[in-house]
Specification:
Order of helices and strands: HHEEHEEEEEEEEHEEEE
Shape: elongated
Number of strands: 14
């Protein structure tokens, strides 16, 4: 009986102590050291350039007539006032994350982890996809220079919408800095011209 009573008391006491003070597993220091020496799987970018996805004239994102973008709330980037015949091309190798239902915007991610939003025109969501001919779909793998969209920019302007296209790095906070290269305001740019540098 004495052994039974001792076992019961021991079980009750250890249960109460564990409940009150918790239980902390002892970590094997050798395992911790091993984990510390494992190489990081994160992506490191060294002065990677981001190219313009369309022809036109570049302007600073801060000058865009849309506070959501000009305030930097969506991330760093730039904008392009497109030529009438401008088409939108993939600025890098990667994949299509999102094709908006109204076709006015595309979400992309590069093979290096750069997340990009290409927003074609200001408030063009209201046009319900009419001027946009999207050539890709969500989940597609894309190659740099691949045609992503054809847009009737003249139709957009005829309907009194601003065709300015915003190119935004939506995961800006993951990088040390994102700098605009030394381009003058409304300087002509072509597809493939480097606009941003990511460090």
């Amino acid at each position: 009986m004495a052994f039974i009573i001792a076992d019961v008391v021991s079980l009750i006491v250890t249960t109460i102590l564990t409940y009150l003070f918790g239980y902390k597993d002892i970590v094997d220091e050798s395992e911790t050291d091993t984990n510390k020496t494992k190489p990081s799987t994160g992506i490191v970018l060294n002065n990677q350039n981001i190219d313009s996805p369309l022809d036109g004239k570049t302007i600073a994102l801060t000058e865009v007539n849309d506070q959501v973008f000009s305030s930097g709330a969506m991330g760093s980037g730039f904008a392009v006032i497109p030529n009438n015949d401008s088409k939108v091309y993939a600025p890098f190798n990667g994949s299509v994350v999102t094709v908006f239902e109204t076709k006015h915007a595309l979400g992309l991610i590069s093979d290096n982890g750069v997340e990009m939003l290409i927003h074609m025109g200001i408030n063009t969501v209201e046009l319900k996809g009419e001027p946009f001919d999207i050539k890709v779909k969500t989940g597609d793998t894309i190659k740099k220079g691949q045609l992503l969209a054809e847009v009737d920019w003249q139709d957009i302007k005829n309907k009194n919408y601003d065709p300015t296209t915003m190119v935004v790095i939506t995961n800006t906070m993951e990088y040390k800095q994102i700098n605009n290269l030394d381009l003058k305001n409304k300087q002509p740019v072509s597809v493939g011209d480097a606009i941003l540098r990511i460090d």
